[in-house]
Amino acid sequence: SMHKRNSSNAMSMLIKTRVKTLRRKDAPFNVHRLGELFPKKKLFFKTKGKTCVIVSSAGSLVGSNLGEFINSHDIVMRFNHAPTLGFENDVGNKTTIRIVNSQVVSKPEFNFLESSLFKNISLLGWDPADINATLEDWLKKPDFDLFTNYEKFMLQNPSADFHIADPRSLWDLHSILQEYAKVPIIKNIPSSGFLGIAILLPVCSQLDIVEYIPSTRLNGRCHYYSEDINISCTFGAWHPLATEKLFAYSINTADDFTVFQKGILKIKLNKSKNN
Ligand code: NCC
């Protein structure tokens, strides 16, 4: 059917775009002191066939009671400074990896070097480079200063599994979304949520995503951990968020009750195609 053809196209486009994390051998980091601090092993080295869940930070997680469901997965991904303490019933308390943007890494208010939120888990940092910037350009002039605290963090926690996304991969993800959308979408890289999907696809046999497609609990709040009302957190202002969500919905295998009442999107992965 038409639907089948579209969804398998979307899936294969996304699987083909392997998001790169920066490695020690990548210029200019091979001759820069930062490169020596990069983890020796790739993110999720030899990890395959896991059950995974992505916990969006959406306000509509409030009252979801999804905590136990979230904790039951092998790999639990969260974003930025989203807390679990005090919210266990709705979001669980297990964390395997956090994707952190360069604002969270650099701005004093997030206390990145001290906070226990960022300890003893895997971390993936990112910062938006201009579309045509080389890694050299970006290293000199990131959007927010990801690098100073990256270096400090790794010197304080030398065995930390803290990776940095190659900013050119983030633009590859944007191209996929643009190809999928047909109509022109905003020319900014996707949100941490979509980066998370791309990162986990090769690692998981089953990927669940909670409250990325907003459920009927939609309450206008930006985050489950704050009472601020801002619906653009859900539909997008700077990131092409609505397109990301339509894309994710098009590769979903769960029924509408699961997606729109429970707030769970399910992506099944074919292991043989995937590796
Ligand atoms: O809000 P944020 O996102 O940290 O949320 C993480 C991911 O959850 C999904 N989300 C969030 C809220 C919502 N109502 N619906 C959702 O689907 C999105 O997929 C989102 O990516 C980010 O992506 O890194 C982002 O970070 C914030 C902010 O920098 C951090 O929270 C730190 O305060 C950005 N907001 C601002 O810069 C003001 C946001 O645009 C993107």
Largest sheet: number of strands, sense, barrel closure: 7 strands, mixed
Low-confidence stretches: none
Strand order of the largest sheet: 5-4-3-2-1-6-7
Assign an overall shape: globular
**Number of H/I helices:** 12
Give the averaged pLDDT, no decimals.
Answer: 95
CATH class: Alpha Beta
User: Which structural class should the secondary elements be placed in?
Assistant: alpha/beta
Assign the CATH superfamily: Glycosyl transferase family 29
Please name the CATH architecture. Answer: Alpha-Beta Complex
Helix content: 25-40%
Q: What would you report as the Rg, rounded to the nearest angstrom?
A: 18 Å
CATH topology term: sialyltransferase cstii, chain A
| Strand percent estimate | 5-15%
Distinct bound molecules = cytidine-5'-monophosphate-5-N-acetylneuraminic acid
Instruction: Compute the separation of the termini in Å.
Output: 26 Å
Element pattern in H and E: HEHEHEHEHHEHHEHHHEH
> Based on DSSP secondary structure assignment, what is the total number of beta strands?
7
Tally of structural domains:
1
